[in-house]
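@channel sequence for tomorrow's demo:
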Amino acid sequence: MEGRQAVRELLLAGRRKAIEVFVAAEQDDAEVLSDIVELCDGVGVPVREVSRGRLASMARTDAPQGVVARARELPEAGLDDLLRTPTGAEPFLLLLDGITDPHNLGALLRSAECAGVTGVVLPRHRAVHVTPTVTKAAAGAVEYLDFALVGGLPTAVRQLQEHGVHVVGLDMGGPVTVYEMVLGAGPVALVLGAEGAGLSRLVRERCDVVAAIPLQGRLASLNVSVAGALACFEVMHRRLAPGRR
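structure tokens (generated this afternoon):
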């Protein structure tokens, strides 16, 4: 774990055990650093001050912001586990069809958690998983999301549909826009395709609906993390609106 916000959320969430935290000597007196130390003291996690050079040698990212933590791995959920939420609310799932850029994945997870996504489905192969770079870019969002790894996304889509999940694919060639799609009141899954390639053919064919984000400029597409954020918040808006549809 690297980055101030990511480490702070690790300690706040308490979902997995933090083993130890390393902070670089002679850095600024930011409030978030004081929070990290206090949180560590409160749960008995040792804090070790090390030189900037030592911390840089430990880091897996280019800018760990003077903080590195060691923690247990994130728990892995099964696909069935994602169909249940702690609050009893209808699941809002995010399925990612082969995203390979860790910065895109991290940014997307941060937006998804803020929009109320309850679980994330990642393909086991040919896709980035939760790495230190992803964790830092997500700014702590990984601590509040459940993750399931699946062998094939088309099969996962079919299994979710069998449990009543309405599956929406996001693709610039979709016949309707995200502002026109009909969701209903049940569980929903939003599927995003890989950078450049978009949704794979089989995944696209299995979605209940494929929706596009209308663009008014001269560029033909959005970055996947931006497109995903817009779509996640549109789903959130529909789920919160009175008489939602």
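heads up for whoever presents: The mean pLDDT is 92.
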